[in-house]
Each structure stands twice: as structure tokens, then as C-alpha cells.
Amino acid sequence: METAAALGERGRGRTAPNPNVGCVIVRDGRVVGRGWTQPGGRPHAERMALDEAGEAARGAAAYVTLEPCCHRSPRGPACADLLARAGVSRVVAALGDPDPRVSGGGLARLRDAGVEVTVGPGAEAARRSIAGFLTRLALGRPWVTLKLAMSLDGKIALPSGESRWITGEDARAHVHLERARADMILVGRGTYDADRPRLDVRLPGLEERSPRRALLTRGEDVEGWTRLQRPEAIFDLGDVNDLLVEGGSATASAFLSADLVDRLLIYRAPILIGEGRSSIGYIGLTSLADAHRRWRMTDSRMLGIDRLEVYERDRE
Ligand code: AOF
Ligand code: ZN
């Protein structure tokens, strides 16, 4: 299932409003088919994996990060039917599909067709890889990642505003990778005016994956940018699964104050700035007790000489 989730990650940022599902088909201990939801949401992951497996799918087991669909769609066949027809004998799904058109119906259809069905293994990895879709269906808004690039002492610029660069090339390349995995990137008006950022993906082979751009501003519209007046406007975005918030500090603070950040990417450079501009400002804290038990580290690694730390909001 870890492999299926990793395959699903390949579609991240390009399948919305569909989930980025991953699928692996295994026959006699060998992988015979691999698939992931294609750009635009179709073909579905199972379809792609079955096409690769061909006849080898007969009697095989399919591992999918999400319950196979069963709905009638003008966009393509139902994966539960495709799996049953291909003669797959076992389907392991990490998670049920919360889409009301599916919602257990895919698993029921497979069982009716005599396929052995297991639900649950690898749910954690799957939940992480389809977090955007799951958050959108559960809460009506995208899964929000806030990126912060800072010095060891939490600064993003000198008092003069000079900020290029805090982190090194490897860390910046990683940010571009994260952009490629988002459906939309948002910055504040201050960052827009100061940097006129292109927010595109400048990585070889991934240039086509530049996401939609959004601006947090009470001011006027800018052509080519979606305007959000307040962080809460993300509830109206509709078809965005993954949103990446890239700053600056006022925008980061606004999203944190509204408790609308699900994941933090902290790129920390081995430099000290001292007096300077803070990565975030007021976030509505009145006591230290409220600051604790909010964030849980889920990853940490070196990117060149910088350190990346990933935290997820603990909403339990
Ligand atoms: C799967 N495998 O790879 C995906 C699924 O617009 P449609 O017809 O493609 O349907 C979209 C719904 O299909 C979506 O909301 C979700 O329930 C499911 N997505 N299902 O079996 C996949 N991407
Ligand atoms: Zn499907």
C-alpha cells in the first residue's frame, strides 16, 4: 500500500476535483500493474494498472489507496466493474471513498462479484497522499500547506527587507517540487508587490505543472490571479484539493490565526539574522498553553545545508 500511495503522489496537484489515487496489482508476489489517477482525473488509477497487467490480472490482488468507484459516469467506466471483469480475486483498499456516489458501494459491488475485499491496511500512508481530496469532502476546503523559509532564529529578512536568499538551491528546488504537487498557490499582496513572483515550477520536465495562482488581498483584482479577500474564502474554491500558501508573514499569520493550516513546511537555513523580519506575526495567542500540542513532526531531513521540517496540525 505504501507503493500505491507513492504512485498516487504522482498525480497530486493535477487531478482535482478528483482524488489522486494509486493502485498496484500483484500476482504471485510480483507487481504486474501500476496506476495512478491521470491529469484531469481520468483514467482512474485502477484502469491504468489493469491495462498494464492485462491477462496477469486474473487471480491477482489489487492494492488501492481508495475504494474503487462504482458510479455511472460519462467520463469513464466504474473501477469496481473493471476489477471484477478482469478476474482480480482480491482487492485491498486503504480507505473508503467519502464521495456520496461511491461511499461503500464500490466495495459492495466487488463482494457481490465474488471478490475478496479488505479495507484498512496502509490507511495512514493513503490518508496522507489523498489528504487534499479527503479534506475537501470532509470540510469543504482544500488541504492547506504553509511554506516558511527562515533563518535559525525564525527570520525571513533583514530590517531593510533584503531576503534573497535565506535558503540554498536544494531547498528552493524542493519548494518548486511542492508547487508542482499543489492545485493552487497563494501569496499575499505584499509579497506580490515586492517580488512579482511567477510561482511557476522551474524544474526540468515539470514546467507544465505550474498551478493556479491566488492572491490574498482586500484590494483590487489582478489578471490571472484568483482573489481571496480572507483566508476563509478557501471554503468557496470548489475544485482545489491542495493549496500551498507561500507568504509573506502577514498572509502566514492570517491563515494561522484562522486555524486554516494543516501542514507546515519549514526550511531552516544555518544562518542567524538577529534583528529582522519575523516569519510570522500575531497569530491570536493569549497563553502559551494554547501553543502546545498543535503540531506534530511528520518528516525531517537535510536539503543541502538547510533543514526541512514537516509538521501536521494535530486536530485530535
Ligand atoms: C477510483 N479511482 O483513480 C479515482 C476515483 O468524475 P469521475 O467520473 O472521474 O468521478 C470522480 C469520483 O471518482 C471522485 O469523486 C472519487 O469518488 C472517484 N475517484 N475513483 O476508483 C481513481 N480518482
Ligand atoms: Zn474509478
Give a written overview of the molecule.
By secondary structure, this protein is α/β, with parallel strands linked by helices. The protein folds into 2 domains: 2-132, 3-Layer(aba) Sandwich (Cytidine Deaminase, domain 2), CATH 3.40.140; 141-313, Dihydrofolate Reductase, subunit A (3-Layer(aba) Sandwich). The protein contains 10 helices and 15 strands. It has helices spanning 2-9, 45-53, 79-85, 105-112, 123-129, 131-139, 169-180, 189-195, 249-257, 288-291, and strands at 22-27, 30-36, 61-64, 90-93, 116-119, 143-150, 155-157, 184-188, 212-216, 226-228, 242-245, 263-268, 277-278, 295-303, 306-313. The strands form 3 sheets. The chain has an 8-stranded mixed β-sheet. Helix 8 links the parallel strand 8 and strand 9. Helix 1 (2-9) runs parallel beside helix 5 (123-129). The longest helix has 12 residues, at 169-180. The chain starts with a helix and ends with a strand. The model has no long low-confidence stretch (mean pLDDT 95). The chain binds ligand AOF and zinc ion (ZN). Ligand AOF binds at residues 18-19, 21, 37, 41-42, 44-46, 66, 68-69, 73, 75, 79, 97, 99, 102. Zinc ion binds at residues 44, 46, 68-69, 79.
Task: Give short descriptive properties of this protein.
single chain, 316 residues, alpha/beta, Cytidine Deaminase, domain 2, Dihydrofolate Reductase, subunit A, eight-stranded mixed β-sheet, five-stranded mixed β-sheet, 25% strand, elongated, binds ligand AOF, binds zinc ion
Query: Taking strands numbered 1, 2, ... along the chain, how are they ordered across the largest sheet?
Result: 10-9-8-11-6-12-15-14
Taking the sheet with the most strands, its summary is: 8 strands, mixed
Write down the overall geometry: elongated
Number of E strands: 15
- What percentage of residues falls in helices of 4 or more residues? 25-40%
| Rg, nearest Å | 21 Å
Straight-line N-to-C gap = 24 Å
Uncertain residue ranges? none
SS class: alpha/beta
User: Strand-residue fraction?
Assistant: 15-25%
Contiguous helical run count = 10
Q: What's the level 1 CATH class of the largest domain?
A: Alpha Beta
- CATH architecture descriptor of the largest domain: 3-Layer(aba) Sandwich
CATH topology of the largest domain: Dihydrofolate Reductase, subunit A
Let me know the CATH homologous superfamily of the largest domain.
Answer: Dihydrofolate Reductase, subunit A
Whole-number count of domains: 2
H/E topology pattern:
HEEHEHEHEHHEEHEHEEEHEEHEE
**Which molecules other than protein and nucleic acid are bound?**
ligand AOF, zinc ion
Roughly what is the average pLDDT, rounded to an integer? 95
